[in-house]
Design brief:
With 281 residues, the chain is an alpha/beta fold. It folds into 2 domains: 3-67; 78-280, 3-Layer(aba) Sandwich (Rossmann fold), CATH 3.40.50. The protein has helices at 3-14, 20-35, 39-44, 52-66, 71-75, 96-109, 126-134, 147-159, 201-204, 221-233, 249-259, and strands at residues 77-80, 83-86, 115-120, 138-144, 164-168, 181-186, 191-192, 213-214, 234-243, 262-268, 274-280.
Amino acid sequence: MTLKQYKDLFLATLVPVVDAGEAERFFYITLEELAGWRRMDYLMHPEAKITATDELRWKAVLNSLEQQQPIQYIFGKAHFYGLEFKVNEDTLIPRPETEELVEWIIHENNKRPAFNVLDIGTGSGCIPITLAKHITQAAVTTIDVSANALAVAKENAQANEVSVNFILTDILQASTLPQQYEVIVSNPPYVRNLEKAEIKPNVLQYEPHLALFVEDSDPLIFYRKIAHLALDYLTPGGKLYFEINQYLGAETVTLLEEIGFTNVILRKDLFGNDRMISCTL
């Protein structure tokens, strides 16, 4: 088969699952991963043949995509804030909304003198590694409850040539933090079980539920716990940053104000959803 025929096959197979633009994007990602070709290479040589051996690999990818497996898991990597991260079923796939949170933190803190940052719930390590890469004077520590996720994050720190301190801890069971910090950030689990109907199958079936979901009866459990710890472990004037559930912005603001934080700022993401909060001790 030619590349043009495979592109047509991708569209025919995947459009019932995703929209045509996404199906085309999957084709070009696969083209680059399996053939090392860019879009321009394809446009110049659409009739190039795929070898029989490569056809098996193309078919395997297409079958996985048809089953709605995320393409980041198929190829084992994702891109975040200009960096590449290894990902697998033990880690969430980094998202554009989280890039916006990281941009906010970098913008507000990159001129600080040497300071300490704590990230809680590292997953692939995209937040702490990106902060360490772009705020070189920051000493970055990160915590996660999953040993498997921490192993992936450690690989990503090494691959991106940054130093991050990794700690295996269940933050909900923690009574202390390792030291004082000028900045604490977390993108904790925040999707309520009642919202599962809104979650796309590629997320619901493949991404780790441990990192996604909280009980409907107490959806702010992580925010409350982290904020109370931050009262004792943020330096005076220190900043706390969260990614949040878009439906619980007002509730999260109220929680943080009641706990004792000031200058609580709620921000929307590029999609217009309440998505991130900063506050000051």
